[in-house]
Amino acid sequence: MRTRTENRVSAPPAAAKPLQLGDPRRRLRVGMITMAFVLSLFGGRLFQLQAVDAVNYGASAAAARTQDYVLTATRGAILDSAGRPLAESVDAVDITADPVQVRSLKQDPAVYASKLAALLGNPPGSVDVGKLRAKLSDVTTRYVLLAKQITPQVWNQVKALGLSGVYGVPDAKTVYPSGPVASNLVGFIDGSGKGAAGLERAYDGLLAGKNGRISYQAADGAEIPTAGINEQAPVPGTSIETTIDAAIQWAAQRTIDAQVSASKAESGTVVVMDPRTGAILALATSPSYDQTNLSAVNPADLGDRAVSEVYEPGSVAKVITMAAAIQQGVASPTTRVVVPGAIQREGTVFHDDTAHATEHLTLTGVLAESSNIGTIETTDTFGPDRDQILYRYLTEFGFGRYTGLNLPGESAGLLAPPSKWSGSQRYTIPFGQGLSVNAVQATSVFATIADAGARVTPNLVKGYVDTGGRFTAAPAASRTQVVSPGTAHEVEQMMESVVSEKGTAPAAKIPGYRVAGKTGTANRFDSRCGGYCGYTASFIGFAPADDPQLVVSAVIQDPTSGPYFGGSIAAPVFQKVMSFALQSLAIPPTGTKPPNLPVQW
Predict the structure, then answer these.
(1) pLDDT at 406 > cutoff 70
(2) What domains sit in the chain, N to C, each tagged with a CATH number?
(3) CA–CA distances in Å: residue 279 to residues 82, 443, 533
(4) Which residues does the UniProt record annotate as the domain Penicillin-binding protein dimerisation (predicted)?
(5) pLDDT, mean over the chain
(6) Which of 156, 157, 134, 154 is nearest to 145 (CA)?
(7) Which residues of 167-181 are buried (b: 16+ CB within 10 A; e: fewer)?
(8) What is the pLDDT of residue 4?
(9) DSSP string, 566-580
(10) CA 390, 396, 401: angle at the middle one, nearest 5?
(11) Using an 8 Å Cβ cutoff, are 578 and 515 in contact?
(12) Taking 70 as the threshold, does the pLDDT of residue 218 lie above it?
């Protein structure tokens, strides 16, 4: 069978679709939206910078340009009684730098350091160049102190160098025109400008004033004139006018220094007081120190021993016992006292400083010869309230309480109430052992006798001087009548016998003047030896005796070379200081004769 072959024809390929272009309007819309979004981000950021955060960013930028410094207030002066400065502030400048600014100006810290070092230091050129370079290179801070309290003259030399980024800030410094006179009393200020001792510390709030501040904007180390200055002016401190007589203070210091050195003593003090006002004219302590060289000072010498160092006064306290006996009406200057070589009380045997047979002394003689036994016998006449009576007079004369000077480190001393007195203390306290006082307290006792029995609170501040030079007097010191004028007069006459050839202190005599006083030679308690070791030698007196205008005390602690008696080493100090003071203040002799009371019967 035949097969039919069919011819098949292939279909032509489909035609390709034509290329279609995107809608340009759509692309334009997308592009515009994208661009608008990007611009909105920029616009939003710009709005944030210029509107929302403009103040903050402006402040930040201003802060980066702002120089801000403390303006130290000028410290008030400490003046002597004549208005002359013992301590005062003078113009000075702190040199500071901005290390970041120095670097941004592409300046070399090493060159800056070299130029500055040639002008700084005492003497000039003595500063450490390496330390200056290190400070100027410290870009972690915008403030470094390169030199403190240089003179205005040196600052003018520094300014002439034209060192951008280096600044001068006023910072007055304290100087001592009289040198170390009254240094223990005046004190000093520490590195932060605060009073650290003496009057500088006691009256720091008044002397310091109130610091101010100044801020201004600077570029390239120079002030921007149009940016303005924000300044809070400092308030200067108030000056203090003291009662100290600089000349008498100098004489007292020189004299006690010499005696402490000659006796190889641990320390010594001299107090000079006006008994009528309680004013302290001199307050000298030895060893002393120089405020301008504190690095060489023994810390133990920084305080004022006249108020901080307490000691057992010894026989100078017998003045209180005698005043109590006369005021109580149980004795008079001529009362007869039989004084054996020793007495026993409550199991304790008491002796005088020098062994003797039985003596027949008047009450004046008991004081003149400084008899412990006679003093004990005198207190036996006080009656059953003996201890309470004695305690009352001791406290009214100022023992056991603060002096009123308000100096740092002052001790009120130690005076236990009678209920705590031991059996032996009941008999040692009347002659000045078993209690402790400071030198100003002891001096005040004699000032009370000198002022007709009235105790005037010791004081050091005469008044205050403001920045306009106006003087305001300090409140008057309080006055308390401790014993009657008659009692004080009789005790004064008894004390004159101490300075006679019959007494323990003829070395205290001053030609032409009547002098009244009392010696003390006390056993000295020292914690270093765990008990009594060494002595305290003292003499306190006033002149003219019949018209007292000055009281001087001299106390020497632990003399180890030569004599240790108050009449031997303290009385001569009194004599020299009192003689100088009488002449310096032009106080004439009274021209009267001493009473010459009997010391024996």
Answers:
(1) yes
(2) 69-91+173-208 (3.90.1310.10), 92-104+144-171 (no CATH), 246-584 (3.40.710.10)
(3) 14, 12, 34
(4) 72-219
(5) 90
(6) 134
(7) bbbbbbbbebebebb
(8) 47
(9) IIIIIHHHHHHHHHH
(10) 105
(11) yes
(12) no
Other CB atoms within a 10 A radius of the CB of residue 319 amount to: 28
Cβ 68 vs Cβ 213: under 8 Å: yes
pLDDT value at 317 more than 60: yes
Beta-strand runs (E) in 171-266? 173-175, 212-219, 222-223, 229-232, 239-242
The more confidently predicted of residues 418 and 26 is 418
Q: What is the DSSP letter of 414?
A: B
Contact 65, 224 (CB under 8 A): yes
- Report yes or no: 469 and 460 within 8 Å, Cβ to Cβ: no
User: What's this model's pTM, rounded to 2 decimal places?
Assistant: 0.84
Helices assigned H by DSSP within 146-228: 152-160, 183-186, 198-202, 204-208
Single-letter code of the amino acid located at 251: A
Q: List phi, psi (to 5°) of 88.
A: -150, 160
Phi/psi region, residue 255 (left: phi>0; alpha: psi -120 to 50; beta: rest), is alpha
- 600: Cα within 13 Å, side-chain hemisphere: 6
pLDDT at residue 85, as a whole number: 96
How is 18-67 classified by DSSP, letter by letter?
Answer: PP----HHHHHHHHHHHHHHHHHHHHHHHHIIIIISHHHHHHHHHHHHEE
Map residue 383 onto helix, strand or coil: coil
Model confidence pLDDT, tens digit, residues 415-455: 999 999 999 999 999 999 999 999 999 999 999 999 999 99
Is the pLDDT at 180 greater than 70, yes or no? yes
Task: Please report the pLDDT score of residue 60 as a whole number.
Answer: 57
State the pLDDT at residue 15.
Answer: 57
Considering only CA atoms, give the Rg of the chain.
Answer: 41
Show Cβ contacts of residue 187 under 8 Å, excluding neighbours closer than 6 positions: 195, 196, 197, 198, 199, 200, 201, 202, 291, 408
Q: What is the DSSP string of 102-113?
A: HHHTT--HHHHH
Which of the 8 DSSP states describes residue 397? T
